[in-house]
Specification:
The structure is a homotrimer. The first copy, chain A, is α/β, with parallel strands linked by helices. Helices cover about 30% and strands about 20% of the residues of chain A. Chains in contact: A-B, A-C, B-C.
Chain lengths: ~650, ~650, ~650
């Protein structure tokens, strides 16, 4: 992490003509110093069972060495060759939708012994080759690993053993999972029916948790193999990703990333964000916050868009803005996916730095500008750290819970899922220039934060609730939302006053909730936009000491608290009893955060301000213009420009960095 | 039926803690006098094949006896235990969507001999227990029984035998079903292909009719078992339900309820209606009318919502209004589903009287108010009867027909189905305070009614047409709509003038129809809302004696009759050649009904007026305010208030009952 | 082709009563001279395996002879009888959606040897009967033949052999199909995975091409059988159809019609067009242009709507307008589907000439008017030919390409597909009264045309590109759109400047493209409607000699060319870098076509003008009023009216024909 890495995933195996030398010349000219290779081409490295051919890989590594490019090698296990699928027909994942058909990547059962055998063999054979090359700075384990919804008899057998171990007594499981409902009780763990038919969210949700554990196990297993070939100083990473909501937005539901990150030495992630006219940068901020949280430091953006998918082509200036935004969030690496657009008829329109004509273009030229600046500022900008006062808690089990029980009438398609509520809050922090870390529901110590935000922390186990209570008692602040602490980790709903274990902390309770039917949101405290209204969910909250800072007004229900604040112990707790618009949220948080110990900067989106500490202890400030208009800029007089001289105003999509 | 029953379904087997004593104390305090138990918990009563454990059931019945609560016991056959699904893998229904997976309720093939064997055994073992308890006032057979779309080889074999018996000659079937179409003719009944592939609505529709017959057979079979344990005075019932259109709205397509009702001694039904801001009560009126029609008298509402599904939480006052609305329609029982909200992760958000905290709440308190009033008025209000002048005919085969041939261009999703058209008419009657009965297309004697309404009676067999003609000839009135009497009971379209057999009755015919493309609806007779327009369907009707009371005006088609009236014999017949808005329908019916022998009261929704005759012969009138506003009330001076003293105005969601 | 054929498909086998004599009497009275019979009734002709019964067919042919009706006999192979499906369970097509279930037509695997055996036997047995009847003027092979997505092991085995033959070397295939992507490379053709799982559009698209070839093979094979029974002068035809977009609109994706037309002696087609308030006639023009192009002359409309599907009932006058429109496009036959509406419960609402009452109706009466006029003008109007200056190229492989890679962001549903873009251009030509021919991408000689239009010619093989270049060089004109010449025939994207091989011809290139985000369309040359904007796709085009006649203006991208014109060799080339509204297209083409050698008539839709040459060399002009208003008409004084006397104005939906 002592220099900024900048580059692209590189796939010479896909190119329609031999041009490696020219490619790398062009990369060097653009200031690239990194490529990622090899992770997608198992059928190239092992065209027949047991016949290996690493000629192209050797040629690539040798060429990279000549060009001074660093290389991250990816283990090629996420896309299996046809012969492997033919050898073991049951290697294809048997899922909720039935048996996968060979063709797409990530179509296999990652618990299959044949898959594991061939994975290990190809990794070992490849790493015997790559260990010889000095340009190789490390390895990426697999690629965006998921459980691929494996529901094979093998996987479900492992799951039944897991349950037997977890509960011991089958009656304990029956009780905890509420299997009496609709006569689902079993007399033995072996009697458990196929998870794919269940309507019991405790059982179904536990299987999701078990599937996430398979990912952790798999990556740890790959790491143990890679360890045999690792040189001192080489890194091991993985490209963690996010929930896909048209782009990377929210918590990846299929991986316990905090657990799985134990398999790597440095966190990596893939950030595909909204672009062009929809670019706001909030996914860059969110993704970076997740990645920083995994191992607690700087991270690698292993994939992000260059031209990106159709309709994502960045406006002039946006590519540079995006690159510096990653760095401002603490990234030590910006790597595009991918170098050249694909001529093959698959992902052909997810375009790389180069277009299909493989010639320099405006995207390439803007990369070169970034490359020049990255090289110049590498010492200053590599490995930045953050000192944020705010943490946002994510919870896979809550995500599962809201998936089974969305915030809408049954039979309707929910407008928003867990990630949407998460991004609703994180997006507002982003716009208010309140930087945040991400913490996980498995963590218990939040003492370094002034404020812990709990978006829809639906499935809260007792120890976590206790930890939160203690944290507030000791002077911390929390901001909870509707549907928090409603069930335990098995989605079993608590049978006392809601929010369970936190009624004294929040100073309120409720025993009924319903749809707000457009109830007006009113406040004497916050400067709400006209016409603000509650949406999605409304708890009929009864105050037990808290103060209502905003209220819901409904023609039939009358007034109920919408936003409350309460002192508890030495700390404080705010609560949202309903959802409302992003604009209203901005107004609420602007007024509320100071009461929760968090000052709000005066700058507002589209002018983003990001602060970080350099490795030398220097304080850096990034000013990022997320608009196509020129913005006035008011930089402290004693701050030194890094991209000098910086203007008195920020041009469209412009970037200014100061030190001190 | 000599007292009002009031209570809830009660599931101690689901509760997260032991609190039966407290539950029943609370029930008694709320004026509950009834619980329904046991129907969902087969895996609790028989945790292993042949091992029975009725401890909890005994405890429940004993406790109910101590508390003076009546109990309806449900046979526990609608949700099979895992061991039974494991024992016979083919017990799971093989449907149009393939084999069901174990998990949800009602997933089995109800023709499976193994299912029947185990049903009978568990029923007998349970009733040996329950027969001992005086608190048990009767039994509910199964629960909302359906055919679950069984298409097993066994079921289809039975269907082929059914067809062989029905037609005798295979050529007769080929002809009647039009199997020549696309070469589907068969040489023998055994050659009939899997119904799941058919595009022939005669064949597919007949299978639907056969599936409905399976339900009747199953309930009659259960009744024969229950008979062996029945004490004098005990009732047998079943909770019939309705088509689900986001709530119970329309004819249940999968059951011939009139047939199936032969299995019970008193009709029961489940009414889940629109709620909160969408509450109109029309589903309460409709469901009650269906239930009254089944056995011709008072009925039990075996399930209805307390807090209900998400977004259904009743506004203050609505729960009481709903309870009295059921009674006003003739219900002798209002039973909530269910006592306590479910903590298990299944239907957890379909909330009961109690919320998850199991403490008294506003819903419980409003129940207690109802309980007090029900107790007070029980003698007066139990077992009311109706003397309606209007009947609305329902037809499962017409429903099937409109399902195969909806009122829209092919490839488009129809806006409305059969039940929507049915509710369109019934909703208007509801708003106009014209009370109606429901009759079935299997019935032939309508002489007790002034008016018989035929909503989209698409599939009308010849004898029914003759009966209708005779009814009008003898002085009755009918109101028919577009798409009536178009096909016979096998969806075979009649090949003479439409509406078949009724052209002389309606005094019109048509040979073409099309989409109305927004044709204007005009009338000199009715006070139509501005901008009234035809929708969905337009018959190009030619008058043969009828008078056009409203016309469709289309820029290219010109004017065609929309609403017509005709004298036939000693009676009269009105016809709608098109659909139009509910508001226009209200105006049309208001003007038209008097010409059809039916006076229209002067009160209008949201003020509902319902009349009934008490067991002692007294005339009762219910005034129900279906709005959140106070309404003026004009009660005859000689009517005696039952909830005394009644105000000169009706408060929001208020209820007034008078006698005399 | 020496007289106009007019009639209907006739299905006595479906009729609910015997009325053949009456039917044919009515036909004759309406001026019908043609029926098509027998193609749908295999189970009638062969009720049991090997038992044939052509009694009804003989009766029909004898009756037709008595009535002087010509008959086209269809081979009855598109709808198999139940016994055949039972005999060979694997005869049912195994498709992307799994194994078909018997019931609908066209559900079988047309490569199945059992299917072929029984096809041949029933055809030979039937033609042995029909050869005896003088009224039989020819045969229709099968019915709207498609591959029915057969993916059986047999079909895929044939496909692997086809690929082995095509590529010889497996590595050549790996390279060309880009199978390295996601490790899909194979070591042998036998290792190729099931096409149904592929994500590789080269492989998937080639299978589509192979499926289209199956159709050609099948029709050629049927032709070889029919040849054994053909009398001199008898015709062989097939009813080719079109992509179904709610009606026939665009290129039928599943058939190479130009190839398949080798199986017939006269082209036939089925044209179901928009109707009533949506009638524009553009599908009549398009379908006719395709049919004319197949064998280069007049054609038969073997099916078109009478009353048609629900909501299609023609306004008074439209049926006649439609009939003459077909003739104006060169049709020698207008045959309705079908004579009588179906009483059987299948396609019952796709109504024929007669309604279900089988009595004369307004549709029948309008047919009779047409029949009278057709008889009168038959000599003049039969077998017209066209001398169009404009050709529009269609390309099945481009259609496949746009199917895999639609013009929208991934995950979104594309608004428009290939056929929509095709109809966008053809619709505008239709409205501007610029008549066009259709040519196929397999053709190379376009010298008879002034202008060749290339709508989204995505997959352009090198020889076609060379032919286009040569055509322009020699003085021809082309009009190309966005996404043209982007990939080769295997959807492999060209890796040099776009549009590949045509940058010099169009005088421009581009290396990036994106969504236009509503960029304004501006022009000093064209009279664009206010608010014209780009849609769907925007190429960031750089001019290399071309002139921009219209530009795209985007607030962030600035201005880019939208419509360009360039001289190349002795010809010229225009290019559309974006899509825009139909109204804007009308304005652009009106201004642009003259520069491309094509004059634009002054008449505009809804007044259509169509010109044709009669067999005697006379020049005919059709004036067709596609509106419900009376239009002024300005006919040259020396033109002689055929439907005399013609008025000075065209009545709603009116037709005028002049000669000379």
């Amino acid at each position: 992490m002592d220099k900024l890495l900048y580059g692209a995933a590189y796939y010479p195996e896909y190119e329609p003509c031999q041009r490696m030398e020219e490619d790398m010349d062009m990369m060097v000219r653009a200031g690239f110093n990194l490529i990622r290779v090899a992770e997608s081409a198992w059928s190239t490295w092992e065209p027949r069972d047991g016949e290996f051919d690493f000629t192209l890989l050797r040629r690539t590594l040798a060429c990279a060495e000549r060009h001074g490019l660093s290389v991250i090698v990816g283990t090629p296990t996420y896309a299996i060759p046809p012969w492997l699928a033919k050898k073991y027909p049951d290697i294809l994942a048997d899922t909720h939708r039935g048996r996968a058909i060979y063709g797409p990547r990530q179509c296999y059962d990652l618990t299959h012994p044949g898959y594991r055998f061939h994975c290990e063999r190809v990794i070992r054979r490849m790493l015997e080759v790559t260990r010889e090359y000095g340009c190789v700075i490390g390895y990426q384990l697999d690629n965006e690993t998921k459980p691929y919804d494996t529901c094979s008899e093998r996987a479900q057998g492992m799951f039944r053993e897991y349950l037997r171990e977890k509960f011991g007594d089958v009656e304990a499981m029956n009780r905890e999972f509420g299997f009496a409902y609709w006569s689902n009780s079993v007399a033995d763990f072996d009697e458990l029916p196929d998870v794919r038919g269940t309507v019991n969210a405790s059982y179904g949700g536990e299987y999701s948790a078990f599937q996430r554990r398979l990912v952790t196990d798999f990556l740890l297993w790959q790491r143990s193999i890679v360890n045999d070939y690792l040189r001192p100083g080489q890194l091991v990473t993985h490209n963690f990703d996010f929930e896909w909501r048209g782009c990377c937005a929210g918590l990846q539901p299929d991986v316990d990333q905090l657990e799985a990150a134990r398999a790597v030495t440095v966190a990596g992630c893939d950030i595909y964000h909204k672009a062009a006219g929809e670019l706001t940068g909030e996914e860059i901020t969110f993704g970076g916050s997740v990645a920083r949280g995994l191992l607690g430091g700087s991270y690698l953006v292993l994939e992000t868009q260059a031209q990106g998918n159709f309709s994502w082509l960045p406006y002039p200036g946006q590519l540079r803005l995006q690159a510096f935004s990653h760095v401002a969030n603490g990234a030590a690496c910006v790597e595009y996916w991918h170098w050249h657009s694909i001529h093959n008829a698959c992902e052909s329109y997810w375009k790389g730095v180069l277009s299909h004509d493989l010639a320099p273009n405006d995207t390439y030229r803007e990369c070169a500008e970034v490359g020049r600046e990255f090289a110049e500022l590498s010492d200053k900008l590599a490995g930045l750290s953050k000192e944020n006062r705010v943490a946002v808690m994510v919870s896979s089990r809550s995500q599962t819970g809201l998936g089974w029980f969305p915030s809408c009438a049954p039979g309707k398609t929910p407008d928003k899922n867990y990630s949407d509520y998460l991004m609703w809050l994180c997006g507002s922090l982003h716009r208010l220039n309140v930087e945040y870390d991400i913490v996980w529901d498995a963590q218990r110590d939040f003492s370094r934060y002034e404020l812990l935000i709990l978006p829809c922390l639906y499935a809260a186990p007792e120890p976590l609730i206790a930890a939160i209570r203690d944290y507030v008692g000791a002077g911390g602040h929390i901001l909870g939302t509707f549907r928090t602490a409603f069930s335990n980790e098995h989605l079993k709903i608590y049978h006392d006053a809601q929010p369970h274990g936190l009624t004294e902390v929040f100073g309120l309770t409720y025993d009924r909730f319903t749809a707000p039917e457009g109830a007006a949101l009113r406040s004497d405290v916050f400067d709400l936009p006209r016409g603000s209204a509650a949406s999605d969910w409304m708890e009929l909250t009864e105050l037990r000491g808290a103060e209502a800072l905003a209220t819901l007004e409904h023609p039939r229900w009358g007034a109920y608290p919408a936003v409350t604040l309460h002192s508890f112990g030495r700390g404080g707790a705010a609560y949202f009893a309903s959802c409302f618009s992003p604009e209203a949220l901005d107004a609420v948080l602007e007024g509320l955060l100071p009461s929760l110990g968090v000052p709000v900067p005066r700058e507002r989106y589209p002018l983003l301000v990001r602060r970080a500490r350099a490795r030398d202890g220097g304080k850096l400030t990034f000013y990022l213009n997320y608009s196509g208009e020129t913005l006035p800029l008011d930089v402290p007089p004693d701050a030194a420009p890094l991209l000098c001289p910086y203007p008195a105003c920020l041009p469209p999509w412009g970037v200014v960095i100061t030190e001190g």
